[in-house]
Amino acid sequence: MQDGSGVSKPDALSPAETLAKAEALGVGKAGMDAGRCFVSAMLAGAFIAFGATYFAVFLGDPAMPFAAQRMVGGICFCLGLELVLCCGAELFTGNNLMVVSLLSRKIGFGGLLRNWAIVWTGNLAGSLLVVALVFAADVGAMNGGAVGDAMVSVAAGKVAPDWLTLFAKAVMCNVAVCLAVWIGYSARTVADKVLGILLPISFFVAAGFEHCVANMFFLPMGLIMKAAGHGAAVAGADVIDAGSIICNLSAATLGNIAGGLLVGAAFWFVHRKKAGSR
């Protein structure tokens, strides 16, 4: 690609251009009509749930070696963020990057919190809708019920750690997610976005980090599958209940916010325009 002077330029936006784009997107998100924002957030919650379902179906093969299972399962999960970035939807974890607009004083703290509250709630609604549809579609019965067992196993693994461990996992998760979203912001084509997010997203999934929106699907799905008779032999399945789900989501949400703020604030500090610069 060349500019008007004939000098070659990279296809991706520069870091400073990406920051400017992120700031502009943050302004638009803060000013979005509440109804549109909620429905867009429902779409994002559903998209992430699609990726989570794909991941669970893949885990339904218990003979798969651990490393291959984590790597390919992580790639399957990438479907969710690909749909969010390419189709356009409001995802709570990605919207934590709105902090760059706040630091640049282009939005207020109230606008930031308003967006996060609407989007978190909308993501939950979209996720629960997909939980109901996946259950009605009897996806858990696939592979002789092994997919349902895998859903219970995933949920059990997510409620087992203590709150601080979950928080740390969530910080790491959203560092990876926000880096993937940042790559998506810098991309000029759909192919760039899809390829750019594969490694960061599959990394956080493979490492077992905690994503609050994904857990809005995984945890209720595991609870319902357990009630339907799946996962009887899964260790720790008995502790999947409303209390453990709330514990996980509280740690995951706050940790995701912390991770997103770390990424956004760091990029804003490094790439912001200095006073008097052009």
TrEMBL record:
Q: Which UniProt keywords apply?
A: Membrane, Transmembrane, Transmembrane helix
* Protein family (similarity comment): Belongs to the FNT transporter (TC 1.A.16) family.
Transmembrane segments annotated in the record for this chain: 38-59, 71-92, 113-137, 163-185, 197-218, 249-270
Q: Which domain of life is it from?
A: Bacteria
Quote the protein name from its UniProt record: Formate/nitrite transporter family protein
**Which GO MF terms does the UniProt record name?**
formate transmembrane transporter activity
Give membrane topology per the record: Multi-pass membrane protein
Indicate whether Transmembrane appears among the record's keywords: yes
- Organism encoding this protein: Rubneribacter badeniensis
Its Gene Ontology cellular component terms are: plasma membrane
- State where it is primarily located: membrane
Q: Cellular location of this protein? A: Membrane
